[in-house]
Amino acid sequence: MQLADHVANISAKHEGGDPEIDQQRPHPSDILDYFRDKSEVIEAGDWENLQVNFMDKFDATNKTAQALTQNGLSFIAAQNLHK
Asked: Nearest-5° angle of CA 46, CA 42, CA 31?
């Protein structure tokens, strides 16, 4: 919030959940998981862990949006980012 109110066109990107939650997970978020083949993830038994990581990331994104809104800041979601 210290930067968001006076830096034009700032962007926020979440690669994982909130650090205090993520570090407690059996399989913390890892950017390299994006590059793993689905079959390898399933074989390694990490499918459920990656689902939890995704939901943590989703929660962190919503918290960021809520904090921006509560501080009177507007934002535009990147709706076409992952088409």
From this structure: 50
Burial label, 64 (beta-carbon count in 10 A; 0-12, 13-18, 19+): middle
Long-range contacts of 23-31 (CB under 8 A, 24+ apart): 25/49, 25/52, 25/53, 25/56, 27/52, 27/53, 28/53, 29/53, 29/56, 29/57
pLDDT 10s digits, 3-53: 777 777 766 666 788 999 999 999 999 989 999 999 999 999 999 999 999
Q: Report yes or no: 28 and 22 within 8 Å, Cβ to Cβ.
A: yes
Using CA atoms, how far apart are residues 29 and 3, in angstroms rounded to an integer? 25
Mention every residue, 6+ apart, whose C-beta is less than 8 A from residue 74: 68
pTM: 0.76
